[in-house]
Amino acid sequence: MTIGEIARRARVSRSTVSYALSGKRPVSEATRLRIQRVIDEMGYQPNASARALARGETRTLGLVFPPASTHYTDMQLDFIGGLVDAAAVRDYDVLMSPGGAEDRTFHRLIGERRVDGAILMEIRLQDARVDRMRATGFPFVTIGRTAQPDGTSWVDLDHGRLVQHCVQHLAQLGHRRLALVNRSEELIRAGYESARRGQDGFERALAEHELTGRSYQCGDDAASGEACVERILSDDPGVTGIVTLNEAALGGLYRGLGTAGREIPRDMSVTGIVGSRWAEAVTPALTAADVPSREMGRIAIDLLLERIGPSAAPLRHRLLTPPISLRASTGPAAP
Amino acid sequence: MTIGEIARRARVSRSTVSYALSGKRPVSEATRLRIQRVIDEMGYQPNASARALARGETRTLGLVFPPASTHYTDMQLDFIGGLVDAAAVRDYDVLMSPGGAEDRTFHRLIGERRVDGAILMEIRLQDARVDRMRATGFPFVTIGRTAQPDGTSWVDLDHGRLVQHCVQHLAQLGHRRLALVNRSEELIRAGYESARRGQDGFERALAEHELTGRSYQCGDDAASGEACVERILSDDPGVTGIVTLNEAALGGLYRGLGTAGREIPRDMSVTGIVGSRWAEAVTPALTAADVPSREMGRIAIDLLLERIGPSAAPLRHRLLTPPISLRASTGPAAP
DNA sequence: TTGAAAGCGGTACCAC
DNA sequence: GTGGTACCGCTTTCAA
């Protein structure tokens, strides 16, 4: 079923059908109705590829994220959900593209103009994908910000400040010896921004509150979390407060503490930056800064559409600092 | 940068450039090299929309899933990850489309021919989307199967059998009074197939082993899990075994049991069908049939590409029955 | 108010 | 081995 077919049956030209559909030119009520009848009868819908070619826009947005070496985290996945839903509301589809800057699929997305704009996840402080995108002038938004965040649109959590808040919370409860459970060594070495900025925030906060503490790298799974607790306690059995950036290791962290005979929050306070689903799944429920993943997805879409549209983009970025939700995993330090 | 531009610079016709790229017609080594040089210089990549229009295929697959009323479960999201990765390996992109049969985005995907084929998630026993797809003759694969599974391609977990295995496992440990923690009331009422077939399997298994038991509907979150435990124990304090289909409520289930003073597995054995990430996150780790979400994604892609390609599709469906991974949450019933 | 026709950027058939 | 050209299906300018 093509527009030509519709035109023939409605005894008008193809252009008239097109205009009847788009409304970009007045069409007499009589012919409009006649055309609409035929369209409904035939169940016609314009071909997206043809339209994209003619209009020069695809009404599709790209989501670029690194291939999952192991698993995606809940945060990432909720974020994707929020993003896709938000795009759908605005009549955009989302094309998923695993792959880094050198990747085939990345080339496909941008180079072949499969999408009108892109969202980049899992940003590193130095990020080749961002550099490439800037060079091409292609509209894009990042989740997370590079070391030079000006000149790009982004939405990000203020991991530095959030970790500081967590430390502050523990400090106010009287804890003096802390540990930070960060993401995996590879991610940190790769310059993964949330891990790096979280770590910086931890160190700053320790200095500020005159506390002692140490950072640990930890894989994104329960077993790593368990192992991490062992390291923490063997390095310094006097630790009474843990801040975690590692959602997927949380269950293991709890188990490790249980195995070591440390009860939460009596013997050990735990807090961190974690999606609410995980925070509420563990017992005792985790006092944490809840990651507003879905909202971040929505914001990313808004920022991107701003840059795609004809209007100048007034707001370029959003730095979020969600409050700490008090649950049950932190308590006063033993005197 | 268009193919015409490349042709001009390489002093050949557009068709020659096209053939040099596709290899569908021999091109002399000399001109091939000349063309390639220009292409590399200019960084040319063919426009996807134009190519899709000319070839009549988009090299894009659609993923249709209901909009997240609340959250996606881990299973769903891991599944998406596996699917996207598998598609990328085969040089396909994946277009995400939240929305049911009546939805705008569903129309867009199929009607506008944005994709060459589609994968439908969250299948119901009677599913309007499946009916529509079959009517259009559009290639598609479902995750989960309808009440009449013949004539469609699908990949599914054998929830009925898996629940039976879980019950059997508990029966062998001497448990006589069981409870099934299913998904939410809405989902079950909507005819959500895994929930329905799981429930059927539970009832069959109870009869087979001459056990008593009861099914519970439970929302996809920790709080619902906690509430569900209360209901179970107030209905029958003698229950010593729980089978759960509800991944997202698992943490709450554990907490509820803890609150009720039931220790796992001493006072209560728990098992079910759950992704390994969740199974390993809880303490004690859950003995469960691990949902192979990522692999299911891969299989779905394979099945779909089979149906899209020119070759006849030999295999139409895959019913998976992963083994129960023994962990730490089940034990013998008290004598 | 409507129609004809020239694009959009490729592909592939028909010639030579 | 290569060039010319008619498509693919839709949008939009130009003309009537």
From TrEMBL, chains A, B:
Keyword Iron: no
Keywords: DNA-binding, Transcription, Transcription regulation
UniProt KW Transcription keyword: yes
PROSITE patterns: HTH_LACI_1 (PS00356), HTH_LACI_2 (PS50932)
HTH lacI-type domain span: 1-55
GO molecular function, one term: DNA-binding transcription factor activity
CDD domains: HTH_LacI (cd01392)
Domain of life from the UniProt record: Bacteria
InterPro entries per UniProt: HTH_LacI (IPR000843), LacI/GalR-like_sensor (IPR046335), Lambda_DNA-bd_dom_sf (IPR010982), Peripla_BP_I (IPR028082)
This protein's name: LacI family transcriptional regulator
Organism: Actinomadura bangladeshensis
